[in-house]
Design brief:
The complex is a heterodimer of chains A (about 300) and B (about 400). Chain A is mainly α. In chain A, about 75% of the residues lie in helices and about 0% in strands. Chain A has 16 helices and no strands. Chain B has about 400 residues and is an all-alpha fold. In chain B, about 70% of the residues lie in helices and about 0% in strands. Chain B is elongated, with a radius of gyration of 28 Å. Classes of the chains: A mainly alpha (about 300), B mainly alpha (about 400). Chains A and B meet through helix 1, helix 6, helix 7, helix 9 and helix 14 of A and helix 11, helix 12, helix 16, helix 17 and helix 18 of B.
Chain lengths: ~300, ~400
């Protein structure tokens, strides 16, 4: 087990280097000279030279790459170009609000989607099943934007059940007052695709021999569905969940933007709008690392979910 | 279809001996697709949208989408009908001129009424009054009056020429929402299709090379794939958007296409791995076919159905992505209308009770995306019957 984890971590090194290289090429070459982006319109040559020296872009390319790698390793990306806040502190302070919205959302979404999918898979082929699938397909096709705009208008602006937007200082207030509507919207958006996906996972299992055997030995339908089928369908579900886990670090771009939640997603959009390269660079690299880590975690969880899985 | 091509001239012969030649993959798939009613209906809708896109692109329809043909926020005709009649049918009518946007507006009709009254007054009093009477209704009225004067020269004429209602309503400047929606579909569908073509092409080329050559080529492409795949898609798009400074339809096609190839790569690579060991490829090798010929003349037709389905899946995804990017302002430039930019305008309009632009853009997109997804499912079932039941059931 330990050997497996060490080998997997070792295999991540080339990919990590690749991500660093990709981000470096993107922001130092494709994006043009960062000094010009930073200096903006009111720049003379002297200022630009000054900035170039500060950023290290007057150095040869391999020195620049080394500077970037050092930044990644030490976590010190310097200060934001637009607000002068340290990038590390931006990431640290924005993570909390993102997680406040996304963790409850992920938990509720998973519980609802699994429960509903099991129910629908149980009555597969019936009118209920078909209706739910039709609703899901149409629900999937409506733009996320429409959900957010309409929900925000209707529930917050028109009915006044929730604050239109904002963020407070206490965790309780944030979770129960300001996050409530964003979580509701997130559920409306996320349940349809997940329900559809999980249903197919359950359908794959529901016709297996072991289900018939379980039924033959007189187990209750509840036990068959919740214990036997769910456990066997858990591997693809875990894969799917783990694939979405790094998204927690990213926050929900659109929801955070609409509701003025000071999370990472909103920060990314702001950074792109302001061409704030250090923030985007830091986020891209770290979220990529987190993705790799959660992939490894997913593989380890397979083993826990299904002892037949051989880690090699 | 396939009979005709193999037997050369006559369909008559193939009718006499129906089983002499087995129909090709595409003919069979088309037959299966035709028997799938949902698939055919959604195909018809998709074709209609694409036809609309082409017609709009050629300038046959919605050419004058930017023309301000209606009054500001002209309501859709079906709810504007009784306003046109002149007698105020809405119960809140007496208070209508006093309606302000600060107070919560319950009935969209009231606004419409207020505006039409404002417009009528404006038409009577001429240009300077247009600004004043508009003020109570629209905070931007002054600015707009100026813009209109600048643009058209004589403001009163314009005010007279405008119609109080439009088929699907009007936007802030009185532009026809129906025409905007058509023009927006041109942008959104074109970006979706073109970006899907770029992504599928890249994914196919990379996947073919990796799967066919194997060894270090495979390793290199797999490394490339894992690098791209470890960065969450939306973040990657935004990072590229941040770097590419100039906005444009081409830029967004490139962004989506260059970042989106990974899914196709994985599938096509797997297919090529499977196919390169088959007998027909060995036979091609034996008759001296070159590597490229084996890859694209011999193997490619056998994996082309995967490519087609991928193209279809991508188009749906990219249409959605384009709408979000344009909404955020990272997509098409401001002078190009897209469903995303319409939704962006609609966001502020909704608070004023003007729901029609949101409804038009949202519905158009939902209909297209629903039809396209259903068509994709049908296409996959038709091309690869083995998969049937896995996704749909």
């Amino acid at each position: 087990m330990t050997a497996y984890i060490i080998r997997r971590l070792w295999q991540m090194v080339p990919t990590m280097l690749g991500v660093i290289l990709l981000v470096f090429v993107l922001f130092n070459w494709v994006g043009g000279d960062p000094a010009y982006v930073l200096a903006g319109k009111i720049s003379n040559q002297e200022q630009i030279d000054n900035i170039r020296r500060q950023l290290g872009v007057d150095q040869p390319i391999w020195v620049q790459l080394w500077i970037f790698i050092k930044q990644v390793l030490t976590g010190d990306f310097g200060a934001s170009w637009s607000t002068n806040e340290k990038v590390s502190s931006i990431l640290a302070t924005r993570l909390g609000p993102s997680l406040t919205v996304l963790v409850p959302l992920l938990i509720l979404d998973t519980l609802f989607a699994i429960g509903l999918a099991l129910a629908v898979a149980y009555v597969r082929g019936s009118l209920t099943d078909r209706l739910v699938m039709i609703v899901c397909t149409i629900g999937l096709s409506i733009s996320v934007l429409v959900y957010i705009i309409v929900f925000q208008y209707f529930f917050a602006y028109k009915l006044g059940w929730f604050p239109v937007q904002g963020w407070g200082n206490s965790f309780r207030e944030n979770l129960f007052v300001f996050s409530a509507l964003p979580i509701l919207i997130g559920l409306a958006v996320a349940i349809a695709p997940n329900l559809r996906l999980y249903r197919t996972f359950f359908l794959d299992e529901i016709n297996q021999d072991y289900v018939r055997t379980a039924r033959a030995k007189g187990l209750s339908e509840n036990r068959i569905m919740w214990i036997h089928v769910l456990r066997n369908a858990s591997i693809p579900i875990i894969t799917h969940l783990m694939a979405g886990l790094p998204g927690l670090l990213l926050g929900a771009f659109l929801i955070e933007r609409f509701f003025s939640i000071p999370g990472i997603g909103r920060e990314v959009i702001l950074a792109v709008e302001r061409s704030d390269f250090p923030v985007i660079k830091a986020l891209t690299v770290y979220v990529a690392f987190a993705t790799m880590a959660s992939n490894l975690l997913a593989d380890l969880m397979y083993k826990a979910a299904d002892p037949r899985v051989q880690l090699k | 279809m396939a009979n005709g091509t193999t037997l050369g001239s006559s369909a008559r012969i193939s009718r006499e001996i129906p089983h002499s030649v087995s129909p090709g993959l595409w003919a069979l798939a088309w037959k299966r697709l035709k028997s799938d009613h949902v698939g055919m209906v959604s195909l018809a809708i998709v074709v209609a949208f694409v036809a609309m896109m082409i017609a709009s692109g050629l300038g046959l329809i919605a050419r004058d989408w930017a023309k301000e043909t209606g009054v500001n926020y002209a309501p859709p005709s079906f709810i504007g009908a009784d306003i046109e009649g002149g007698t105020p049918a809405a119960p809140i009518a007496p208070s209508a001129p006093a309606v302000e946007y600060k107070t919560e507006v319950v009935d969209p009709l009231a606004d419409a009424l207020a505006e039409i009254k404002g417009e009528k007054k404006a038409a009577e009093a001429g240009a300077p009054a247009a600004g004043d009477s508009g003020k109570s209704v629209d905070p931007l009225a002054d600015v707009m009056a100026d813009i209109r004067k600048d643009a058209k020269g004589a403001a009163p004429e314009v005010a007279e020429a405008r119609s109080p209602t439009l088929p699907l309503g009007g936007d802030k400047w009185g532009r026809d929402v129906l025409k905007k929606t058509i023009k927006g579909s041109e942008t959104s569908i074109f970006v979706g299709l073109a970006a899907a073509a770029v992504a599928t092409l890249l994914g196919t080329l990379f996947g073919a090379a990796a799967g066919y050559y194997g060894k270090w080529v495979d390793d290199a492409f797999n490394w490339f794939y894992s690098v791209f795949n470890s960065i969450p898609y939306l973040l990657l798009i935004l990072a590229v958007a941040a770097v590419l400074q100039q906005k444009g339809t081409l830029t967004i096609i490139l962004i989506l296409g260059l970042t989106g190839w990974t899914g196709t790569f994985r599938l096509i690579r797997g297919e090529y791995l499977k196919h390169k060991a088959r007998e027909y490829v060995q036979a091609a090798d034996a008759i001296g076919a070159s590597n490229l010929r084996r890859m694209f003349v011999h193997i490619f037709p056998n994996v082309s159905h995967v490519v087609l389905v991928q193209l279809s899946i991508y188009t749906v995804g990219f249409i959605k992505a384009e709408v979000i990017l344009s909404f955020l302002g990272f997509g098409v430039p401001v002078d190009v209308v897209s469903w995303g930019s319409m939704l962006n305008e609609a966001q502020n309009e909704l608070i004023l009770g003007k729901w029609w632009q949101l409804a038009a853009a949202g519905t158009a997109m939902a209909v297209l995306v629903t039809a396209f997804s259903l068509f994709t499912d049908a296409l996959r079932d038709a091309l690869d019957p083995k998969l049937k039941g896995l996704a749909g059931a």
